[in-house]
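task queued by scheduler; priority normal; single chain, no ligands, no partner chains; default sampling; output format set to structure tokens
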Amino acid sequence: MIRKILGWALIVTAVTVAVHTVIEPLYHVSEPGQPYSPLWEPLDLLMALAWVVGLVFASLRKRAVDREGGETVTREYLAANVLFYGFLAVGILFLWSYFSLLNPSYSPAGPDTASILWMLIDATLPLLFGAMGVNLLRNHK
């Protein structure tokens, strides 16, 4: 039952982040003091929690596939590895960017670079959240 609830939570998070990423330019006017919508603050926290959940279940799935072994590359093997390493790669970028927001004095990259990085994160994490959410709904034993 918990897997089903977490699966729906990941899917809702994925849809929320994806929709907000697309519609933000329609309602928010960027200014030097506020380049991004203030809605990103709670969404970033939600994304961080969803990332932890996704990473935990991606690692459990990968471990289960690795235990089965086998010489051939199966669809499940590919799916488990893409999700696991996808969560790791995008998670590293997400956490680096998120912690950079929390510490304004840390600025190794300019604002344009940070914006592009956030666009990539906000476009990629919903795909990972959605895929893991669907997997949890299908396999909610």
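post-processing summary
- Helices lie at 2-27, 40-68, 75-102, 111-138.
- The longest helix spans residues 40-68.
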